[in-house]
Amino acid sequence: MSDSTNYFETNKATWNKKVAVHAQSDMYNMEAFKAGKSSLMPYELKALGDVKGKSLLHLQCHFGQDTLSWSRMGAKCTAVDLSDEGIKLAKQLNEELGLDAEFVCCNVLDTSKHISETFDVVFTSYGTIGWLPDLKPWAHMISERLKPGGVFYIVEFHPILWMFDYNEDKPEMKYHYSQDEVIYDEYEGTYADQSSKMESKEYGWNHGLGDVVNALIEAGLQIEYLNEHDESPYDVFPDLVKSENGMYIMKNQLFPMIFEIMARKV
Question: Signal peptide location in the record (predicted)?
């Protein structure tokens, strides 16, 4: 078994455990979601606008709340995730809510081995690319799955945030901004429920903005914009303060918290 296969298997086992915890968490608020509340955040809603009638591929969908939120808006959705427990729950939610999304369990890098159709939109968000050792095959797959004229949109936590080790009492800057070496992390709890006793064992990689942009350009996509924002829609980092617009900011904001990229296949 190669190192990367072992990394992915370890991550898959952890994400399989996270599904049950996250499905019960306040953060994912399953009851409100089932009652009709969208799980999508303002950035992706503004970026992609009216998706009615569009085909949409969602990469690394967890248990499908965002996928199903796009589906409720009229998109024809297909989604992939590494976790079979995540995909199992996504399929249950899809059936329970009477929606028509399709869910495929696979490593995101193998998407084209499982899905042959092309899409108007490829979408991914918040905590996705850090699980991938190399963004070039990822970007190549995205290009393969886009129709000519189709768009890829990513909104993601800023790479500066991943330079810190959050398992210490005070976050310590420990990792390179764009680090080739794998980062192993072992801790109790999960971002959606810090009090959970579940043990997380995770392998991840840091990718700078240059890595992300250049991988997409090399795959033949045209970058329409790259934006950076001093806020997070999720309270998943230490000592954040909720602002009037419902977003979370740092007490001493010295760098952006999220970035978004829109790219088009020409």
Answer: none
